[in-house]
Amino acid sequence: MDYSKITDNLYIGATPKAKDYDLLRSLKIQLVINMRFGLPPVRELFLPPLKSLWLPTFDSPLLPIPIRALQRGAEAALKVMGSGGVVLTHCSKGRHRGVAMAACILIAQGMSAEQAMRLIKEKRPIADPYAWYIRRRIVKFEKVLSTQ
């Protein structure tokens, strides 16, 4: 499985295959945030304590990731992390949408957008949080969060 550990309780990866779910459990992952539009979670793979949150989004500058989707993901992640759980965010290749979601989780934990993007790039070199349309959503999430 293609994944990277960003912090002790946050991973980013490509879409896991059915055979990868035992590995996810061994990593103590309790929440998988799926950012892929055309690939809903397979319920049979999510045996407790493993849960899924599907936030279908597109990897396109023409269809920006909704801020509300990023808020929902960050809220769910913080709840799991607050009780000692571990979260995996993923999209197709773990380069854009899953990265945006992970950055927003880090921002919700107190990092700046720049700190979050830098940490993700350092821990997952394939990640591209600086793609203009991804960076724009991460920065907007930070601004929205700061006004709440």
Description:
Strands 1-2-5-3-4 form a five-stranded mixed sheet. It contains five helices and five strands. It has helices spanning 21-26, 67-82, 97-108, 113-123, 132-146; strands spanning 3-7, 10-13, 29-36, 51-57, 86-90. The longest helix has 16 residues, at 67-82. With 148 residues, it is α/β, with parallel strands linked by helices. A hairpin with a 2-residue loop joins β1 and β2. The chain has one domain: Protein-Tyrosine Phosphatase, Chain A, CATH 3.90.190.10. The chain is globular.
Topology:
Blueprint: E1 3-7, E2 10-13, H1 21-26, E3 29-36, E4 51-57, H2 67-82, E5 86-90, H3 97-108, H4 113-123, H5 132-146
Parallel strand pairs: 2-5, 3-4, 3-5
Antiparallel strand pairs: 1-2
Instruction: Please report which band the strand proportion falls in: under 5%, 5-15%, 15-25%, 25-35%, 35-45% or over 45%.
Output: 15-25%
Helix content: 40-55%
Looking at the structure, what is the overall shape?
Answer: globular
Radius of gyration: 14 Å
Strand order of the largest sheet: 1-2-5-3-4
What structural category do the secondary elements indicate?
alpha/beta
Give the name of the CATH architecture.
Alpha-Beta Complex
Summary, kept brief:
It contains five helices and five strands. By secondary structure, it is of the alpha/beta class. Strand 1 and strand 2 form a beta hairpin.
Features:
single chain; alpha/beta; 5-stranded mixed sheet; 5 strands; 41% helix; 20% strand
